[in-house]
Design brief:
Elements (H helix, E strand, L loop, with lengths): L2 H41 L16 E7 L12 E3 L4 E5 L17 E8 L5 E9 L4 E5 H5 L14 E9 L26 E11 L5 E9 L1 E2 L5 H15 L12 E2 L1
Antiparallel strand pairs: 1-7, 1-10, 2-8, 3-6, 3-8, 4-5, 4-7, 6-11, 8-9
């Protein structure tokens, strides 16, 4: 074989190897792109988390309740409550063992605001929770036992609940949920962790329904909306100070 032919073969081999490497790099890039797209589908977006004010975990938690067990009047989504809902709150701040040098109990107030399905506040209260403490709250027995609308718990069966964590203020048990003296939630100073257990039923194709228990985390809104925090305090003060003695929830059991 001549020198020129050997040289052409070497050039051809180098070219083929270069093309193979380029193709391999392209396949790796496509694979990485596919992984990123799959992650995007699972997370919803790779552009960042939902827009909240402040850092997580935050001071403001939200959830919903549905305790209606009237199967003849299901909601538009063919669902209805099948019993009580249970909220559990944990205070992760401070130390539960005050004997450790430099550690101390850091109680947190859980300011609870209950709304009906017409978006009207029906009860509110402030609940203290000590460090590493667990507070268990029944929606039926604690949060809907004495609503402002006539004092009849059967009138309120579904709606939303806001829970704001703050350091102790004053008033009953050091937790005043109204605007006097008021409070400023701060994720750096106090936060809570929590979940709610729903007892729900969903209509099925056979004309009956399927029921079961689900426990989900409370929705974390970081420091929340400042205007909404002011509204919660003002509206709660109106409930507590209206002279009817209705609209004040209780704190369940635990810490």
């Amino acid at each position: 074989m001549s020198f020129h032919m050997r040289r052409e073969n070497r050039v051809r081999n180098h070219t083929i190897k270069g093309l193979a490497l380029a193709a391999g790099a392209l396949l790796v890039a496509v694979a990485l792109s596919a992984s990123a797209n799959a992650a995007t589908l699972r997370r919803g977006s790779t552009a960042g988390s939902s827009s909240v004010t402040g850092t997580l975990p935050g001071s403001v938690l939200w959830t919903y309740y549905d305790t209606c067990n009237d199967t003849s009047h299901p909601s538009a989504c063919n669902t209805f409550g099948n019993g009580d809902n249970i909220i559990r709150l944990i205070n992760p701040n401070g130390s539960g063992n005050n004997g450790i040098s430099g550690e101390a109990d850091t109680p947190v107030c859980a300011m609870v605001y209950v709304f009906d399905d017409a978006e009207e506040m029906v009860e509110c209260c402030g609940c203290p929770i000590t460090s590493v403490g667990l507070l268990t709250i029944s929606v039926n027995d604690n949060l809907l036992s004495d609503p402002i609308l006539g004092g009849n718990p059967n009138e309120v069966e579904e709606g939303s609940i806001a829970i704001v964590a703050t350091l102790p203020t004053s008033g009953f048990d050091g937790c005043a949920p109204g605007n006097s003296p008021g409070y400023n939630p701060s994720a750096a100073a106090a936060n809570l962790l929590g979940s709610i257990t729903h007892n729900l039923a969903i209509g099925n194709n056979s004309g009956g329904s399927t029921s079961g228990l689900t426990e989900i985390g409370l929705f974390d809104d970081a420091n929340g909306d400042a205007a909404n925090i002011t509204y919660l305090q003002n509206e709660c003060s109106g409930l507590v100070g209206n002279g009817t003695h209705h609209g004040i929830c209780t704190c369940g059991f635990g810490s």
